[in-house]
From TrEMBL:
Keywords: Membrane, Transmembrane, Transmembrane helix. Residues 46-110 form the DUF7382 domain. InterPro entries: DUF7382 (IPR055806), Ig-like_fold (IPR013783), Invasin/intimin_cell_adhesion (IPR008964). It comes from Halorarum salinum. This is Ig-like domain-containing protein. Coiled coil: none annotated. SUPFAM superfamilies: Invasin/intimin cell-adhesion fragments. Pfam families: DUF7382. The chain crosses the membrane at residues 20-40. It comes from the Archaea.
Length: 150
């Protein structure tokens, strides 16, 4: 048994082959990871596109007004069949106003914002509910409509 331990102690082949095997494993692993990431980034169906609302006008006064809201994706293309929801932020609004975008991505919403006593300005919040079955989402904040006292 002592002879076997002495023989293993003097054997230097394992030390010589180990770094080469590690380098080969590292190169193969990096190449495989590169191929897999390239395949995953090429799949467009898994991507979610963020929506944004562009109201016109962006500044209004209290009283009954019509807002034209265009819904666009991250590339600036309009999105049809999305639901636009306008609610009171720091400006008062009775309930919420909703409308669905047409083929041009535009929705017209009638609102009647009001400001509190001694309040010079306020905002209306706009949310977008994406069309069903699409790859759209509305997670970030949208442009707010500024309501200013006359």
């Amino acid at each position: 048994m002592l002879d076997r331990l002495t023989e293993l102690y003097r054997d230097e082949r394992a030390i010589e082959g180990l770094p080469v095997r590690l380098v080969i494993a590292l190169v193969v692993g990096v190449a495989s990871l590169s191929v897999m990431l390239n395949m995953v980034s090429g799949i467009e169906g898994l991507a979610i596109t963020e929506l944004d609302a562009r109201p016109e006008p962006e500044v209004t006064t209290p009283g009954e007004r019509e807002l034209a809201v265009t819904v666009v994706d991250a590339d600036g293309r309009t999105v049809s069949d999305a639901t636009v929801v306008v609610s009171g932020g720091t400006a008062d609004l009775d309930g919420v106003a909703t409308a669905r975008t047409d083929a041009d991505g535009r929705a017209t919403v009638t609102v009647s914002p009001s400001l509190g006593p001694n309040q010079a300005e306020g905002t209306l919040e706009i949310d977008v509910k994406p069309p069903a079955g699409g790859s759209h989402a509305d997670h970030r904040g949208n442009t707010k409509v500024l309501v200013v006292a006359e």
